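Figure S7 source data.
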Amino acid sequence: MGCQMNVLDSELVLGQLCALGYEPTHELASADLVLLNTCSVRQHAEDKVYSRLGEVGRAKAKHPEMLVGVIGCMAERDHEGLRRRARHVDLLCGPGNLNEIPALIEEIELARREHGKLTVALALEHDHSRREPAARRTLLYDSIEALDISRTKPMEGSLLQSYVRVQRGCDKFCTFCVVPFTRGPERSRPPGHIVEEARRLVDLGAREITLLGQTVNSYSYDEGTRVTRFAELLARVHEVPGLERLRFVTSYPGDFTDDILEAMRDLPRLCEYLHLPAQSGSNAVLKRMRRQYTVEQYVELFERARAMVPGISLAGDFIVGFSGETEEEHAATLALLTRVRYKNVYMFKYSERPGTLAERRMIDDIPEDVKSRRHAELSTLQHEISLAHHQALVGQCVEVLVEGYSKAAVRAQESEQSRGQETSWRRSDQLTGRTRTDEIVVFSGSPSLIGQLATIRVTAATALTLHGEVASGPGPLVSSPTV
Ligand code: SF4
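Tokens for the predicted iron/sulfur cluster complex:
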């Protein structure tokens, strides 16, 4: 569950388990080990974990040997609550300790063999009962770096578009956000490790790499004699032979420097896409959120980005109904959407998170129906802007990295298979891919295009998707992409 960082963490943990001889299964009843990788950013995400744990608990009742673990941010934030409310959980592991999962499994199995009873194995950044905090600190860095460099070819999914972590944690402490409490302080990885990981992924078949960080543009690695900053890291990864596209998410507006825009302008494989969360269009709200920039600075950054990087597309994040948000402050957010004209926007209703400054010092005083109405207003406005953005592309040719069959084609296959019919879905050959500027394109084409760059002429548009037709043939084939 949760963000791209969790998608990557799940892939790395799966790789470690496969090295121990585990194999993935989609049948809960046949699983020996179930791990839920969790998110704490909103209450709704945590409620979903308890609901899934109920389902897993029923499976475990029939298969008592099953090991159940909760990993990720919720394990770090609320391990006591999880132990109290989900007694069938055997293992809890925070996001900074994922490399310890094999050792935790071993610990549980040993305890079962020796005492014949279950124990809860814990590995958390704030678990001072297991080790001294100072020793933990050093080990922590080694442990999380070891997880990334242990990466193997994924057992599931496709390598075509791969994530590479460049930093962990966050030091910003925005008042609404739980991430600094669950993922700890900001730590950047050595640039040589990042470049090497990108090189290995490309050798295995990756064509696009997205560099990940909570505030990715704050990346800074001090090797004593010199400091590598984010623009330089981009230039180094960009030179990996065979890499077709490079992206990065998520940026923090306050730390965004022009050398990154220059890199986006000058490096041909670095995509012209910038995801820059604003969170609000009101300076008063930004101040209550402790976002460390003003609306004017944010807009000025976008204007510079548009001037320096031709064709750049912009995405944003917004929280509606933050503590004390007035109608005027909400109107300022609507005005910011109109002014910036994002390609797309991720918007969320404010959800108070335990332990944050907003939870301790402010009141979550906007009624749910008001949050819902404001969310709907933002959503309606952005729908119009996204539709206009997409319609402007009709008639043009775009470069698409073909990811696989479209959702409609996959649904058709699943429904035919569930009815026991011979599948005819390949005949539809409806494919999907993404442009350099992150638009989703659906088009008819040969399955041999999957994993390749294709030129597509856009013929129609909705607010979410472009539709098109192949304008030119396939480029060189890549190794075994999966759908
Ligand atoms: S920058 Fe703010 S919102 Fe983003 S992860 Fe850090 S604390 Fe959370």
